[in-house]
Amino acid sequence: MQNETVFIKWMNALPNKHFLPIDTTIHGSEITVPDGRTVVHLHGGLSNPWK
């Protein structure tokens, strides 16, 4: 199908505490958010970013 609007609900079921140590000197690794977090991204899709 083409030209169809799709809505996706991303769910993160990772634990709050990561099993590996986190390098807190890296930007974005603040201690105010859980260790178990993700970055949503797509591979191979021909999609335009939202404007």
Features:
single chain; 0% strand; little secondary structure; elongated; 51 residues
Question: What can you tell me about this protein's structure?
Answer:
- By secondary structure, the chain is largely without helices or strands.
- It has one domain.
- 0% of the residues lie in helices and 0% in strands.
- It contains no helices and no strands.
- The mean pLDDT is 77.
Short note summarizing the structure:
The chain is largely without helices or strands and 51 residues long. It has one domain. It contains no helices and no strands.
Describe the secondary-structure layout:
Blueprint: no helix or strand
Number of domains: 1
Q: Approximately how much beta-strand content do the residues carry?
A: under 5%
Radius of gyration: 16 Å
Largest sheet geometry:
none
Shape: elongated
Q: Give the mean pLDDT.
A: 77
Low-confidence stretches: none
State the helicity in percent bands: under 10%
For the termini, the CA-CA separation is 22 Å
Q: How many individual β-strands?
A: 0
The SS-based structural class is little secondary structure
